[in-house]
Structure formats: C-alpha cells, structure tokens
Design goal:
With 519 residues, the protein is of the alpha/beta class. The chain has four domains: 151 residues, 3-Layer(aba) Sandwich (Rossmann fold), CATH 3.40.50; 90 residues, no CATH class; 174 residues, 3-Layer(aba) Sandwich (Rossmann fold), CATH 3.40.50; 77 residues, 2-Layer Sandwich (Alpha-Beta Plaits), CATH 3.30.70. The chain has 19 helices and 20 strands. The strands form four sheets. The protein has an eight-stranded mixed β-sheet, with helices on both faces. A six-stranded parallel β-sheet has the order 4-3-2-5-6-7. Helix 18 links the parallel strand 18 and strand 19. The longest helix has 23 residues. The protein starts with a strand and ends with a helix. 49% of the residues are buried. The mean pLDDT is 89.
Length: 519
C-alpha cells in the first residue's frame, strides 16, 4: 500500500500503455506480427532456424516504452541484424529501421480498429481523485497514437498536458529512458520535478522519471515478475495495481480555520512582514452568477479595495481578460493580471504579456469557431472568448446535454492539439494555452517584478475560490505566504484558511485596513 500526501505535490504524470490503458497487449501483438513475419523471411532466405519474437521477454527487454524506431533497432541488435536507419517517410515495405517501424504502426492501428481498448479503472479513479485534490495531471507516452486512444476511450479530460510521440518528434525530445519527456511534462504543468509524481510500468519509463528528478516514482508490476527490476531502475514504490494507492486526506480537513475567527493569529504573522494582497475576482470579490457580465462589483467592496490599495500593494489575478476585470473593478492604483496571468499591467509602467501565448491565438480562433458550430443548438451554453483562453459556461445547460458540451470541448482541443489544453472551474470548461503558466507563476512573476520576493520581509496573501487558484495557494505554501479559500463547502485545498463567501472576504480586507491604521 502506498499513501500519497497530496499537499507535498503539484502534479502527477502517467504513462499510457499498461498504466492507463491495456494497449500494451495490442502493441505487443503488433510487434510480434511485425518481427515474426520479418524473421521468417530472413530465416527462409538464409536457411537459418526461425526464432520467433517473444511477447514477454523480447517485448519487455527491447521495445516496451521506447519510441518505435528505437524499439526496432534495439530488438534487431539483439538478433545481430543490422539495417540502414532510413527516414521517417519510408514506406512500410522498405527494409529499413524506419520502414519496419512504420509497418508496425500500420499493424497496431489495424488491431486497434478491430476491438475496444481496455481501461484500468483503478488508474482512472486515482487520476480523478488527484485532480479533485488540486494536482495537475499529464500523459507521457512514446506512442504517436495517443490522441486516437484517448478519443476512443473518452479520457481526454483527464489530462492538462500531453507529451506523446508526435510531440517528441516535433520538439526534438529523446525518448525513454532519457528524461526529456518527463521533464517536458513537468514544464508544461508549471511545476518542478521535485513537486511531481511519475507513474510507469516500463523499466525505461521508470528510469526516465527518476532521471528527470521526480520526487516520487511509482512502478506498476502487473505481471508480478518485475518488482526488483523496477526498484533497481529507480522506482521509489512498486505496486501490482494503482488501486493500492491511497491519498492522505489532510487537505480536505473540514476544520480549516476561518480567517476572520483566527484573524489575531494572521495579524501576528504580519507584524514583522510586509503584506502584499493578491485577489481573484469571480467568486471572491463578487458572487458566482449565471452569466459573466452579471458579476458586478458592489460599491462597498470597491471602496474597500480603493482604501486597501492606499496601504498595501494590491493585485487582481483573474481568469477574465485584463481589460474586462480592469473595467469591472474600475480602480487605477491596482495591478491587474488577466487570463490567469498571461497579461499583466499596473502602475508605474508595469506590463507583461506572455509572448508564447501570443503564438497560440490562431489556434484559439480555430477552436472558438469549432465550438460555436458544435454547440449552437445546445440551449443554455455560453462560449466566452478571451484573448488567451475560451471559457465554455454550462451552468444553465440541462444535465442531459452536458456530455455533448464536454465532447465538443475535447473535439476542439484535438483539432488544434497540442497547442491548447483543457482546464476546469465552477461550471465551466476552459481551453488554455499548453504552456507552463498559471496564477501561481503569475504571482511569482509579480513578486519578482515588484522586488518583493523576500520571504523573510514580505508576506503575500491570496484570496481565491476556484481550482485555478490552487496554483497560487501551493506557491504560497512553499514561500511562507497565506492562502485563503473563499468557499462555504468543504473541499480539498492547499489554502490554510477559509472565508465563507465574498461578503466575508470584504470584511477580512476591511480588517487588514484597520490593522494598518492601528500601527
């Protein structure tokens, strides 16, 4: 049994074949069909005995987890067969490393079409639970057919990022056992490897995650024969199935202290450190409403923010476009970070727009067009285009139509993959750039830009209500700051305190003003 303390991690990265799906059996069958046919022809030509490909020893030792061409070369080397490498464009009937690799891909796709793909439900359940606890998730695989498999199984919504064979070729990443794809996955999720969990069933994959510096590497030994080898390859823990993994429930503690009731303790923490205030908008400063344009800031809260900004540095970090939230708040002396921090502007010339996000705008344009076409007949759905994201609001959609909305989002992402990823929120699906950037990274950038990244002298506070705010809460946990969740319900969170609703949040901000005026 393995227990994971979710507060210690920011992300979990899973292999596909043998971990999420049982496509390893399809792969091994395709490899056997390829090599048995080729070896039989070689034996017939040279008069040597035919020694078939073994789906257990040969598969695990030479091809499992490796990029396709590397697997071909590795197995042929074991039989002392030397072939020219060729090129990825080689036809499947060409006698080259790439030609044989392409033939294997044809065989795999044919086998895939002939049957259903089995899913490991214990893995899916663990991934969903990790996501409920605020961890980001990614898929890594050497397969170039990951999108086909995810579409066939309906599991696209499980992952915030994907590094597959197609992406590895595009980015020039080395395949397993090199650490490249696990390093890239952590980068896309915006976490350091020291904050990540890697889950693998192949020896090459375990070495890849270990060498990438992952804090926890879990090996899966479904056959009951690889435990020692997985541990020797770098696994910290080995299980027969991910059903053996449990999560520590510390983050879901219903006794999370109320920030107003425990204000005296917070005030003590702020005695010797300068507070810097970071705030979400929707659900934190205003109640959640059916349509985004109805989330209007009330006069009392606006006056509190204006007074707060005379004493402290105050920044609004919102999923809304910067221009939108800037207009809704209507105060000039605040910092505004829109689109989860991709677009930042503030007093004294403070300004930043993520250049990589600019490159994703054409993909967002295409995805928006596809979504509007696919969802035009779904009553109650709202497609909200932002500069660096698309929010699909389904609060007013009938339950019977929710799957259609979810499928449309997955389809739009697949169409423009891998530039966009799917994210969630309160009754929304969101399409965002697949870049290592979030509210937590924006918070760090602001502290650096304002020369306030001094944990001993500065105490950042963040108030937020949504899963997108968990990235900021986790950053504050690491840096000694204070995270406050604005929510009445008990839910997993990396925040240290709770406020019941936006009204309580306004009261808390007023108390901060009084605290400064008393000093």
């Amino acid at each position: 049994m393995v227990t994971i303390d979710t507060a210690a991690f920011g992300a979990a990265v899973f292999d596909l074949d043998g971990v999420v799906t049982r496509t390893a059996t399809v792969h091994s069958a395709a490899w056997k069909a390829l090599f048995d046919s080729y070896l039989f022809e070689k034996a017939a030509q040279g008069g040597e005995p035919f020694l078939p490909f073994d789906v257990h020893t040969d598969y695990l030792r030479y091809v499992d987890g490796k990029p396709r061409y590397q697997g071909v070369e590795s197995f042929l080397d074991s039989r002392s067969i030397k072939l020219p490498y060729g090129a990825p464009e080689d036809a499947p009937n060409e006698e080259t490393i790439c030609g044989l690799g392409n033939r294997k891909n044809v065989l795999f796709k044919k086998l895939l079409q002939q049957g259903e793909v089995e899913v490991f439900e214990t893995t899916v359940r663990l991934i969903r639970t990790l996501r409920d606890h605020g961890l980001k998730t990614a898929l890594v695989t050497s397969s170039e057919n990951a999108l086909v498999i995810l579409d066939k199984t309906g599991l696209s919504d499980l992952f915030d990022a994907r590094v597959d064979g197609v992406e590895s070729i595009r980015l020039g990443l080395k395949g397993k056992p090199h650490p490249d794809i696990f390093q890239k996955a952590a980068e896309l999720l915006g976490v350091s490897p020291e904050q990540a969990i890697g889950v693998e069933d192949a020896l090459s994959g375990v070495r890849s995650a270990r060498d990438a510096g992952y804090k926890l590497v879990i090996g899966i030994d479904r056959s009951g024969t690889l435990r020692k080898d997985l541990l020797a390859s770098g696994a910290h823990e080995v299980v027969d199935d991910l059903g053996e993994v449990t999560l520590a429930q510390t983050d879901a503690d219903p006794a999370l202290p109320d920030a107003l009731a425990d204000f005296a303790h917070i005030a003590q923490r702020l005695e010797h450190a300068r507070p810097v205030i970071f705030l979400d908008y929707d659900g934190t400063l205003t109640p959640i409403v059916d349509r985004p344009e109805l989330a209007v800031l009330d006069d009392k809260t606006r006056a509190t923010l204006a007074q707060l900004a005379t004493h402290y540095t105050v920044a609004i970090i919102s999923g809304r476009d910067r221009h939108d939230v800037e207009h809704l708040v209507g105060l000039e002396n605040l910092i505004y970070a829109g689109s989860h921090g991709f677009d930042i502007k503030g007093p004294q010339g403070l300004h930043m727009e993520n250049e990589q996000a600019e490159e994703v705008i054409p993909a967002l344009d295409r995805a928006e067009k596809l979504l509007r076409e696919k969802l035009v007949k779904v009553e109650g759905v709202l497609v909200e285009r932002k500069r660096y994201a698309i929010a699909v609001h389904y609060r007013l959609v009938a339950d019977s139509h929710l799957q259609a909305v979810s499928s449309a989002v997955d389809s739009a992402i697949a169409e423009v993959a891998p530039t966009l990823r799917r994210a969630g929120g309160k009754k929304i699906f969101e399409l965002r750039p697949s870049l290592p950037w979030d509210k937590g990274q924006a918070l760090i950038w602001l502290l650096d830009a304002l020369e306030l990244n001094r944990p001993s002298a500065v105490a950042p506070l963040y108030l937020g209500d949504d899963e997108t705010d968990e990235d900021a809460f986790k950053v504050l946990r690491e840096r000694g700051g204070i995270g406050i969740l604005v929510a009445a319900e008990v839910c997993p969170t990396a925040a240290q305190y709770r406020l019941r609703d936006p009204r309580a949040a306004e009261t808390f901000l007023s108390r901060l003003i009084q605290l400064q005026e008393q000093n």
